[in-house]
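Minutes, project check-in

Agenda point 3 was the complex the collaborators sent over. CS summarized: two entities, 812 residues total, and the question is how they sit relative to each other. Sequences were read into the notes so everyone works from the same version.
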Amino acid sequence: MIEINPDRLIGDLRRVADFGRYKTGVHRPTFSPQDIAAREWLAERMREADLDAVIDGVGNVIGRSRTSGPKLLLGSHAETQNEAGWLDGILGVVYGIEVARALRESGSRSDAGVDIGAWADEETHFLQFLGSRSFIDDLDEEEIDRAVNKDDGTPLREAIERAGLAGRPREHVDPSRYRGYLEAHIEQGYYLDHAGLSVGIVTSIVGLWQYRIAFAGEQSHAGTTGMGRRRDAGAALVRLAAMIDSEFPKIARERSVWTTGRIVLDPGAPSIIPGRATMLFQFRDDSLEQLERFEARLRELVRKVDEDGPCSCELIVVDRAVPKVMEPTFQAALEAAAELHVPGKYMRMPSGAMHDAQILAKRMPAGMMFVPSINGISHHYTEDTKEEDIVAGCRVFAEAVDRLLG
Amino acid sequence: MIEINPDRLIGDLRRVADFGRYKTGVHRPTFSPQDIAAREWLAERMREADLDAVIDGVGNVIGRSRTSGPKLLLGSHAETQNEAGWLDGILGVVYGIEVARALRESGSRSDAGVDIGAWADEETHFLQFLGSRSFIDDLDEEEIDRAVNKDDGTPLREAIERAGLAGRPREHVDPSRYRGYLEAHIEQGYYLDHAGLSVGIVTSIVGLWQYRIAFAGEQSHAGTTGMGRRRDAGAALVRLAAMIDSEFPKIARERSVWTTGRIVLDPGAPSIIPGRATMLFQFRDDSLEQLERFEARLRELVRKVDEDGPCSCELIVVDRAVPKVMEPTFQAALEAAAELHVPGKYMRMPSGAMHDAQILAKRMPAGMMFVPSINGISHHYTEDTKEEDIVAGCRVFAEAVDRLLG
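CS then shared the predicted structure for the full assembly.
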């Protein structure tokens, strides 16, 4: 039994939210001064918990146990989205620190240990999963060279240098050291809150397939070009988007989601018929078969718009991340722990959002759990989770760690 | 009979295209150094044609005849769109200068005269119809104070000062001085070129009704928010745009046009469901009744999207410029002139584009004529008109002036 300290847990979560406080949330972009200060603070907490802690060359805070027995790697990301919530990411890091402290205090398990990773830039200020990909050795120097800040264009190299991390080695995983990776995170959705549950046991992280769809027509004057002569790339885009809107529900599964996040008409002036148009489109599902079904239908619709004319329509694949199933034994440990601490108030569910766990899962067994997000709000400073759910979640997390180390 | 000099006409058009030459076209934004240089050059040409010429406080070049008899005001705009054609606007100014010279040389009409206006910023780098609106006294100082450059945000006041025009008086029209206003312009469309005609006699300048349509839903995470819980403002926008696409053709007239020139999804990130969305929509027709019919249908569709939910949809009127009928006697004079110089090779037609003539028409009778645009290309550096059409057009223009002064 690992006994966590609720006051210490909540106190640390409140304290770390001071680094970049924004209204009721936090603004702590990757490699901002407040992000670096928070990472130094986390390293200090890890050292207090008897871990050897370093901040590596891409900002990961890695705390390693000195024990000789079985180990788990725990963690999540430490930065936030812009003007976002106080628990997204950091909750999992502080759970890890609290479990490390509680494990040491428990005495009975002196040979077992946990390492902690506070990953950098899961939130993609520069490069998605920068930290966790670097840690599993799936990121080369050239990709780091090319990356820039998505808001202001600052090169990643420059940001790393300003943060005082240039020249530091990048830490890499030794998979043989671990039984696996366990991550806790806020749900970022409404399923748990809506159902009145306290814990979600992640069955898989959904696959996310992303596309850029480019339409080319002919730019011309909106007053002098008759409707029959137009090759309006914006109108072609609207036709495709409307077809997706009517066709996708017919082939979707219950939790399938699809989103057009951006539309750009070029040149974007009120009196000019757009000569080019672009949309960013994505869909997610935890079934590879369903993802393939969506893509096949999308290709049909794109081909139809392209063949019907008068504009060309091209589908460009941006990403095809496959669903990542969480380790069954980890799911079982989480379920047993939840049955102990929040009996009947948990559910198994896929994760619609991406998480560092899907990266670590490439090198070791991985599991993940959620705590509820009030009203499902995420990536906004009003994001919140009830204190009782934060505490209960940490108890479940600690219990699962105990079982997996046993 | 006013006899124009084709070589002098073409020579001046070629010469003035040197101010801001860009590839085969011209880049001469309002108040750029090349725009001011071109205006000074035009003032010099006006003086050579025995006109008293000034550049006023908003950049208008006004050349006034010293004759005592009947007068017409001729003109068009002198700046260009960015990286645009060599004839758009300036053609009508140089036609005016050529007619002034030819009128003086003809001797027979020594009491009659033409004044010339080379208007500023019809192309809306800062403020649409800045020059012509100022000239007819329909522009107050506060509007000038507020205007900024649409590309780089430079305040209009600052641009005027840099151009060396600060403190100069704004010239204003004395309508009693004129029988009316006559403007020549390239068509900017394909109707004349397609029909193999040389001259278009403008019957009216179409009304242009513009709207901003704003959709409000709820921003949320594209992975964790199920389809049934979404309030996707972008999806609502696509539904309205698709309805316009299917409904407007059913009630349109032959030359009606409608355009969605810009779509913005907010925040515009691939993995965020847009909480807000905006589209800029406009339609044009030369019938006020048709414009009203379009707006009524648009209001119905907006109401339907708003009532069906889950997003709100609001229609904001940006502009409702009514169609401006050109003076019938001016149309008749242009038609008689065309029948003389290009028999059978002209047509009456509405102008789908906006022109300074619609502003001057608020104070005096106004007429307008077009020369063909090769392949209808406009607002692009490849815009062009055959030399023979430029010359024939000027002959028709001069003949119409002669008839209207007679």
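Noted in discussion: Residues 6-206+323-405 of chain A form a domain with the Aminopeptidase fold (CATH 3.40.630.10).
Follow-up: revisit at the next meeting once the mutant set is ready.
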